[in-house]
């Protein structure tokens, strides 16, 4: 099911794999090579003693808390959809400012229902910007339905991600710019 011509990639992971570190390292390397990756990467999900669900905006490095604190008597945490949507708005703004790649942290329950950050996938693809999204293996069938089968399935490792990016960026070499104009340059 590998089609390097597809600008939409699912980084499919199992419970014992860490797509967050793979995506974080990938975004850092792209930036060092002069590309502008925008998006959100989850930094951890720990609903034990101290509820934490945080993510990082890859284009700014800003860390955001995405959990709803349910109080001291709760035994877990819950995603704060409002904070997730605020993060999504920041990513959408970054897409509008120009991007070479969009990273979406997860295809979760919200996205499966057409909510959450699912609109960022369409927004990026409509602007001819490639997208990579972390998809848990148990939700891959839902992902295929969401993407109408138009997606590359990648193993959760850098080799697969790098091979996809090399193919996509080579094909899009005419549209991907290594330098982005400043706002002042754009209005000259």
Structure explained in plain terms:
It is a single chain. The protein has 188 residues and is α/β, with parallel strands linked by helices. The chain has a single domain (8-186), classed as P-loop containing nucleotide triphosphate hydrolases (Rossmann fold, 3-Layer(aba) Sandwich). The chain is built from seven helices and nine strands; from the N terminus they run E-H-E-E-E-E-E-H-E-H-H-E-H-E-H-H. The protein has helices spanning 19-32, 81-96, 109-112, 118-126, 140-146, 158-171, 183-186; strands at residues 8-13, 37-46, 52-57, 63-65, 67-68, 78-79, 101-104, 131-136, 152-155. A seven-stranded mixed β-sheet has the order 4-3-2-7-8-1-9, with helices on both faces. The longest helix has 16 residues, at 81-96.
Any descriptors?
Rossmann fold; alpha/beta; 36% helix; seven-stranded mixed β-sheet; two-stranded antiparallel ribbon; single chain; disordered C terminus; 9 strands; 188 residues; 23% strand
Brief characterization of the structure:
The protein is an alpha/beta fold. The protein has helices spanning 19-32, 81-96, 109-112, 118-126, 140-146, 158-171, 183-186, and strands spanning 8-13, 37-46, 52-57, 63-65, 67-68, 78-79, 101-104, 131-136, 152-155. A hairpin with a 5-residue loop joins strand 3 (52-57) and strand 4 (63-65).
